[in-house]
Records
---
Amino acid sequence: MSDDNPTVKSAGPTAPAGPKDGAKAAEPRHIVLSSHPRKGPRAAPEIHWGAPTAKERGPVIGSQANPQQRNVIGVHSGAYGVYRALAIAAGKLSPVHRPDLTDTHPPVDIPPQPQWSNPDSIVSMDPWGHLVAAEFREEIKSGLDIRPTIAITRARIQFPELVAEMHKGRIKPDGKILMENGDASVVKAAIEPVWYLPGIAKRLNVSETQLRRSLYEHTGSMFSDLVTRTDRKEFLPPIGGITLYIFGSVENLVSGQNEIACRVHDECNGSDVFGSDICTCRPYLVHGIEECILSAQRGGSGLIVYNRKEGRALGEVVKFLVYNARKRNPAGDTAAAYFEKTECVAGVQDVRFQDLMPDVFNWLGIRRIDRWISMSNMKFDAMAAHGIEIVKRVPIPDDMIPKDASVEMDAKKAAGYYTDGTTSAASGKLEDTKGRSLDGY
Ligand SMILES: [Zn+2]
């Protein structure tokens, strides 16, 4: 780095100390570049992805509190890292604040599984992410800012649809898994993405160099370390994470002794939260939860995997543009044009990359799902590629499909999604399944 520019220095041995605590620290004198690895005894701890113990694997350090300790590309908290940067810029958060992890440990055990020490089994999350406060106690005490990338807690949840099902007698309260008032008792886990770049490249069947270059260039050069720091193999991408909702026994989920029901659900805010009727997302989620409760009540477990992959990971703006293009189609919003309209706007039908989805099952040690609440072949094939057995696929009952969503449902069936072979249109023709037009709201 040239000395002509007094505001930028490399993070070599002569780099200035980090900014001092307090709001004024939001304006450090120098920008500390991380483009060259530091050498010597004060170097950041190494990560050996797939090593059999946490100590041998090494901690993931994405904190900026002490840049010399960092051993990954990117920062913690996924997309929320940007808000943290805003808070520091606004002087509301000290850049050197370190979390107090007292009493934050999980209330249930997710113990190490053989898959944790196979670098091919888990490439998109840190399997030790919920255990760092215990596994790296001494390192944290000695001053390393090691943060959990997984948090596990307990909750009760309630869906009005499930209360209605209870009143109809389709599900019954038991006072433990499902309460009289319709509350369901769950264990929930939040998981932040931690990408092992060589493993991600292997899953996608591209070279690591290609992967790094594309991530660098097509995020507007957001992370230059992707191309300059090939010694750093782990990336904390600025994307949404995963939430697990576990019904019934967590031990059974891990041991697989009794039955397991599961739905892998990709976020659809419009339907999941607001009940928009253009798709089957929320009804499918409710159906999945119902099956999870039933499995748990039979002595097994239920698992909802909720992935923040809005609009097939294309985002909500693209999704709403596609809705309009579908609704303004001269032939009407037909099942025949469903996928085509997405491709017209986005250039691709789907970027969820289900190849990464099985990681969470490998983390839990799951080898078999008895009831798989999904009709997606992409999800089914991804599980098969990891040798995870799916015993029975359970499609959504027809009476749970909203009227406008028959377009999506029939298009998916025609595209080869798992089905019982029926379509909504009386004629059986795809062109005859139509949703309402933009004037029909
Ligand atoms: Zn949806």
---
Amino acid sequence: MAALGITVALLAWVAILLLVSIWKQVHSSWNLPPGPFPLPIIGNIYQLDLKNIPKSFTRLAERFGPVFTLYLGSRRTVVLHGYEAVREALLDRRNDFSGRGEIAVFHAHKDRGIIFNNGPTWKDVRRFSLTNLRDYGMGKRGNEERIQREAPYLLEALRKTQGQPFDPTFVIGCAPCNVIADILFRKHFNYNDKKCLRLMSLFNENFYLLSTPWLQFYNNFPSYLYYLPGSHRKVMKNVSEIKDYVAEIVKEHHQLLDPGCPQDLTDSLLVEMEKEKHSTEPLYTSDGITVTLADLFFAGTETTSTTLRYGLLILMKYPEIEEKLHEEIDRVIGPSRIPAIKDRLEMPYMDAVVHEIQRFINLVPSNLPHEAVQDTTFRGYVIPKGTVVIPTLDSLLFDEKEFPDPEKFNPGHFLNENGKFKYSDYFKPFSTGKRVCVGEGLARMELFLFLSAILQHFNLKPLVDPKDIDLSPMTIGFGNIPPHYKLCVIPRS
Ligand code: HEM
């Protein structure tokens, strides 16, 4: 009897879900951009290749045009494809789509910090962090010097490999990790520091797992899948371990805080928290500060580190490009001076290679999800408040007219006929508009300076014939994750 009751209750529950889902979809489809027909509960997930969602978006854009509607589970989602649509949404309508679509697995960061904040504190926390990051050197000479101070440590760690094969993931990753750790916490890790290696492995594992099909699936059905086993649990556990580590640093900084003399971003945020200690609705809480710093720590490490690692693999496949870079570095910088940002003006080839690496690897192909903050009319359609908006970045980076033969790695995409650097407004790996990456200036400096320093001192030696190097990502999802590989670095003198 009891079993029958449970079965009936379950069936009734499923029926209600189906009806609600159909009602929501039919009712709210009015005046939305076109799109494929969604099924109840799963929406259009069945029409997506979970191993390559960005490619599915491209195929759907060919069918439905540059602005189309999808249901990811029950989430109404509008995908923007191509330069005009993405630019129009992120720049001309910058306020309307400045919300952040939920990424369920980062529940512990939801509506706090910067990246996953879709709440009322986002604007102020972002603005305050940006200003202070600038004060601590972001975009100014402070960061250039910080990166230049780090470069010798990186070169030393590479020298220690003594020409033997090694996996570059953590050796290379330590450099950007130390740069951001200095800005945030005034911390510097040795390249074999256990804690640093642990943190980098958490960042690295999360970036990989987030890009696997299971996590693409999980993020759209969190309420159904929360209690099931699966790699989403590992991501949440990693997020929580990173957060605990940062919370400990915040606590230490708080105990030693001299409000008159903040020395890093943690101090600056704590000073703000102290100022509003008696407020009933404080903007800065200890948990909010922890999330803000954790956001910057992993975003500031993993993205730049992955780009450098992918970049080295690409250069090994094209030794003739590496050779040209050596020639330019020797001519402009010479064998011993530490590379500087002013060198970029005289190094159009390196500048073009760095841009082409970022374009080609297409690190975050579908961008981070945005959200409509109010009902918005866009190109004659109505996009209701709360709709997830995906302004794809690969549709700009792989635009065939702007970058002919876009699947091919070709620094010529960023050079004019005189060999000078050629700017492209389609180059938006950091996105654009109100949510544009907070670390764009820092990341671009790091990529140029670290890559120049590595190639100034080393030749890259692959373990296989360059022709056999496969540049395809290991997984495509949230990010394009490079394949695992080993290399040797051989001192040039
Ligand atoms: C190659 C390196 C990097 C790439 C390709 C990259 C890319 C991106 C992208 C595509 C977004 C989403 C923008 C949007 O929602 O429209 C983003 C956001 C963000 N990035 Fe980066 N990023 C990089 C490096 C960094 C660094 C070094 C930092 C830290 C200093 C950083 C901090 C952030 C933060 C805090 C956000 C969230 C902004 C917001 O939601 O308001 N990123 N990044």
